[in-house]
Model the fold of this input.
Amino acid sequence: MSLAVDHFAPTFPDRFNLAEYFLDRRISEGSGERTALVDDRGEYSYAQVQALAEQVAGTLWQDGVRPEDRCLIGLWDCVEFAASFFGIVKAGAVVAMVNPELADGDYLGYLSYTRCRALLVDAALYRRLVPFLHGADDAICCLRLIIVVETQA
Done:
């Protein structure tokens, strides 16, 4: 018995954007007011997450982040994480994520490895990182934008 490989071959669109698929599509279907996610501070609709993601995308674009640039997220599980993730994707950039609970010195390795153009980071984590960022020119050679997010209620 032979299997036709073409039978199982998936088809892909010429253009696909996760933010359009998970957010914009929900809005166009009329589900904008439905709950998209819940965090410790409340519930957020698709429309709210979409609006936040568009703010992030606009800020990234305005500050020089372009398609295929890498952006590193260091945020907790919260609406700001989702907005940052989808905002980066809307801007056409590449998402890289790092656990906010890493040891402080380990972040320089991620900044260097990803060669990220932007860092979207929790305010408490940013305060811990500042001493490591000063004088770390090699690790942050590509970093042009830091967005500090206050995620505490």
In short: Residues 111 and 145 are 12 Å apart (CA to CA). Residues 46-62 form the longest helix (17 residues). Helices lie at 5-8, 18-28, 46-62, 79-90, 106-114, 123-133. The mean pLDDT is 90.
